[in-house]
Amino acid sequence: MGFEACYRAISSKDARFDGQFYTAVATTGIYCRPSCPARTPKPENVAFYPTAAAAHLAGYRACKRCSPDAAPGSPQWNIRSDAAARAMRLIDDGVVDRDGVEGLARRLGYSSRQLNRLLTAELGAGPLALARARRAATARTLVQTTCLPFADIAFAAGFASVRQFNDTMREVFAAAPRELRREKLPAHTAPGAVVLRLPFRGRLDVPWMQWFFAEHAIAGVEEVRDGDYRRTMRLPHGLGVVCVRVEPTGSSVHARFQLADARDLTTAVSRTRRLLDLDADPESVDAALAVTAPALAEEISRSPGLRIPGASDPAELILRAMIGQQISIAAARTHTGRLAESLGDPFDDPDPSGGLSRIFPTAEQVAADGGASLRGPAARTRAILAVAQALANGKLEPHTGMESAELRKQLLDLPGIGPWTADYVVLRYLLDPDTLLDTDLVVRRGAEDLGIDLKEARRHSPWRSYFGLRLWQHALRRRGALA
């Protein structure tokens, strides 16, 4: 976006652009989100930055009125496939905190010096500054919305020490943590629980998300209960449980995290946001598809805010997709449930009334089992074992910083993985907006019913993923499976 377009966005207080760029005001020394309710500054006093980290480095501090660091993430990081966007996805997952800049650069195929130059040129800040801005944003959220001690917040946000935490908060927000925590908050009823609100832009199609996760839930690993979706997670430093509730109205998701290690909080939040595609811009997608696919206009009007149901663990997603090939969702749920019961590590649900009891087995556990816990054709079992072995030995190492084409090729090179499975994994794990499941039977039925020719789907680029999910929705409604 150019200067004029950005200035029009802040003049109209358009919340759709929150998180996509930041407005820095020279006369006040602060930076804001585009929808900040403060008076619009004069053009000559304004500069725009692509990231909060870039504004920090330029000497600006975060606005206390609009909290720009708490805005939803930019949808550009999922739409774009360049190195800068892929780096941002990995930084959000905590790669720099865990493996340093070298680990980030290695995943992207650059030297650390090359990557630093590239990100500084594209985003206005290098990987260390971008990771620091993410830590500061997480810390402020925890300071203002939880009763966690400041030492716990420091390590949960990814800081190496309490002193580093205090210094960063003063520098970024011009206030000490104690000053930011103005209100006395109620203590958590469950030890180790952190309750947060995860913001999103636009609408969110709640019935669609509830249907998808309920229909695919593996007993013991996931559950949908009273409108809440709960699941166990395997995280870098330990295990955890996330519980999310999506309200029919509002602009945030209520999320509750119970983690074995507080250092996993930022990663758990990032993966939960991806699970619900919370950084998407559904209004832009819906507006584009209403023009390119007028046959879907009624579907879009009926359920605005469609998002891609994501995945928190790539190995789990790949194995589940292979098990579910050419069988019904119910049958796949049964098979994966048996696998989790046989091989998954036992888990004690922190909620006494909850039904979580297992962690989905790792690729190593599936490979070591030799197929004893798998059911179905022998050829499929051999293919699943081969892929599990590839995941276990690092031959296949999917991560959110991969390009869609790269991940798709690696998957197709493995035995037993065809175009549907590869596209399904790319769609859900990378949240790729332009992957059409054109071989999916339900998508084909939806297209046939609406008189849409899938051979002409290129006109819907770069939103073919959402186009396909709209067809899926339509077919489900036709048979009464979705309200």
- Subunit arrangement of the protein: single chain
Q: What is the rounded Rg?
A: 22 Å
What portion of residues belong to β-strands? 5-15%
Structure class: alpha+beta
Q: Main β-sheet: number of strands, strand sense, barrel status?
A: 5 strands, antiparallel
Structure annotation, total helices: 22
Distance from N terminus to C terminus (CA atoms, Å) equals 38 Å
Average pLDDT, all residues:
92
Helix content: 40-55%
**Quantity of strands, as a count:** 9
Strand order of the largest sheet: 5-9-8-7-6
Q: Main attributes?
A:
single chain, four-stranded mixed beta sheet, 22 helices, 9 strands, alpha+beta, 483 residues
What do you see in this structure?
The protein is 47% helix and 10% strand. By secondary structure, the protein is α+β, with helices and mostly antiparallel strands. The chain has a five-stranded antiparallel β-sheet with strand order 5-9-8-7-6. Helix 7 packs antiparallel against helix 8 (150-156) and helix 15 (314-323) runs antiparallel to helix 18 (378-392). The two termini are 38 Å apart.
